[in-house]
Specification:
This protein is mainly alpha-helical and 128 residues long. It has seven helices and four strands, in the order H-H-H-H-E-E-E-H-E-H-H. Strand 1 and strand 2 form a beta hairpin.
């Protein structure tokens, strides 16, 4: 498994390593013209860098797939091209700063949520 995805839950790693993800990234890249959609929304001038619109850098999930309550819902969000947009490095960092998804409190909240899901799963296994 790629070291890049070790911070994710096993099902996240499985999805990132799924051949469908590579195909989907290619589709989104072509659909968005290899350009950052946030820069495009803010107007051409906001995206100009050395005379060109900044190239897209990452496929960003608009509705975070990590927010899903079930694995099926997570996969639906993850592999839905309509839930993904191409963004440049600067805009991707800005999105996550605004979401606060990288703050210590957000990380702790996600860990607590994962622990609760694990406990629920364990209870279902024990109770049959």
């Amino acid at each position: 498994m790629s070291g890049k995805w070790k911070r994710y839950r096993p099902e996240h790693s499985r999805m990132f390593n799924d051949p469908r993800w590579a195909d989907l990234k290619r589709l989104v890249w072509h659909r968005d013209g290899g350009r950052c959609q946030m820069c495009k929304r803010e107007g051409i001038e906001a995206g100009i860098q050395d005379g060109y619109i900044r190239s897209g850098f990452a496929c960003h999930h608009i509705v975070p797939f990590e927010s899903a309550k079930t694995t099926a819902e997570m996969e639906r969000l993850f592999f839905d091209a309509n839930n993904i947009m191409l963004v440049c490095r600067e805009c991707h960092a800005k999105i996550h700063r605004e979401l606060g998804s990288k703050t210590k409190a957000a990380v702790q909240a996600r860990r607590a949520e994962r622990f609760e899901r694990w406990k629920d799963k364990l209870k279902r296994k024990v109770n049959g």
